[in-house]
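Quick check before the chapter quiz. The format below is the same one you will see on the exam, so make sure you can read both the input and the output lines.
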Amino acid sequence: MYMSKSRVRGFPGSRVFLPFALVSLAVIVLLFASSCTSDRGSPGAGGSARNGLVKVVAAENFWGDVVSQIGAGHVSAKSIIASPSADPHLYESTANDAAAVSTAKIVVLNGAGYDDFMNRLLSSSGTHPIVVSVQKVMRAGGANPNPHFWYEISKVPDVAGAIETALENADPKNAAAYRSNLGSFDASLQPVMEVINLIKARYKGAPVAYTERVPGYLLNEAGLRVVSPPGFAQAIEDGNDPGPADASAMNDLITSRKIRMLLYNRQAVSPVTQRVRSLALKYGVPVVGITETLPRPGEHYQQWQLDQTRAILKALGG
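Here is the expected output.
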């Protein structure tokens, strides 16, 4: 799984809806409070930077951002997948990544096959950092779970709580600060949940489609009904072309206007997904561009998800 190299990273001109002008006070306060940036500090022995910060390595930038917010002022957080042009499904680790993991006090990985390179880095590191596996926190099992756990907004506080516990264990003297930051982080997700609940109240059961499973958990929480062929989404996720029957079924959903919206992964495109997007625009089906990782440097997880949920709400209303 995830071995094909046919996925092309980029941001084609998908129709992206602008967020509302106002952001909740809780989010604003948290964003200003989050003073720890990626790669802050220099590595040192025992998983601590030379300036006394706890060294944490996260596989993806969204989990790294959560670490930075909860550990603000006390951690040195490095995200390995930090560029929008990097595909976690296909990422190949570097010597710098290995060095970072080998000196980390805490490692945060997604799991479920999404970032297997982290398991290899941990195995070869010869060290034993505290490991937070999001898959284990969310108790996601089965043969092929959807690995995009960060789109299940209602459960992200569980992951944040596991990160806070790891920070407390690594750095007990700053436990009070970590607990306080965790409370602020959890509160800052409320605006996102309010939009999700509003979508569910207004559009429960509305049929939608996606090019791959990235926003699957979010759509489920919002009460929307995903009708895109499972084989189509799985093929795209694996970097393959969908079979003729799945491709035909997806085209029919669009040309017959059987869906209210198409969600399109702007970070992993192929000729097939570009054709589907163009077809949706031709037939007047709203297209919402979503991403797998934080699309802009310095953006926070909450604002990213707030923008995307608002875009979904606006598309359904249109």
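If your answer matched, good. The radius of gyration is 20 Å.
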